[in-house]
Amino acid sequence: MLQQLNDASFDTLSAKPKIFTQPEALAEVLLEAYTGAINAKVERREQEKGLLEEYWSRRDVLLNSLYQQTKDLLRTGQQDFEGSKQDEIHKDLLTRLLGVAKQHECYSTLWNICCDLNDYAA
């Protein structure tokens, strides 16, 4: 999926934001599965510390990677879309990613997005 996003021969850039939702949805499913595994260990009164650290690490890497892909997609789309369409795509992609990052408490990604949005608005 990410290869399709980066493929130079991909003919319709307007479809890229739609394709980008697939890795985003997959990331959300993976993070929910980790959360479920952690909750199960807590309920069984088992040691969850190692699983928590693995979850935090993978969550940060996964969401930061998605954010970098989003930034790359937005950067390449700047030449291909008009101002209002570009702003709409920018808002749509970042709003979904902000929601996932907030839900999973990935504050580093939230901070990066907010800083970039502040730079973008200025």
CATH architecture: Orthogonal Bundle
Low-confidence stretches: 8-12
- The proportion of residues in beta strands is under 5%
Quick one: biggest sheet? none
What is the share of helical residues?
Answer: over 70%
- Alpha carbon gyration radius: 17 Å
Description:
- This protein has 122 residues and is mainly alpha-helical.
- The chain has one domain (2-121): Topoisomerase I, Chain A, domain 4 (Orthogonal Bundle).
- It contains five helices and no strands.
- α2 (16-43) packs parallel to α4 (83-103).
- It is elongated.
- The two termini are 33 Å apart.
- Mean pLDDT is 77; it is low at 8-12.
- One of its GO terms (cellular component) is nuclear pore outer ring.
Write the SSE topology.
Blueprint: H1 2-6, H2 16-43, H3 49-77, H4 83-103, H5 107-121
Concise description?
The chain has 122 residues and is mainly alpha-helical. It has helices at 2-6, 16-43, 49-77, 83-103, 107-121.
Question: Notable features of this structure?
Answer:
Nup133-like, Topoisomerase I, Chain A, domain 4, structural constituent of nuclear pore, Nuclear pore complex protein NUP133-like, 122 residues, single chain, 5 helices
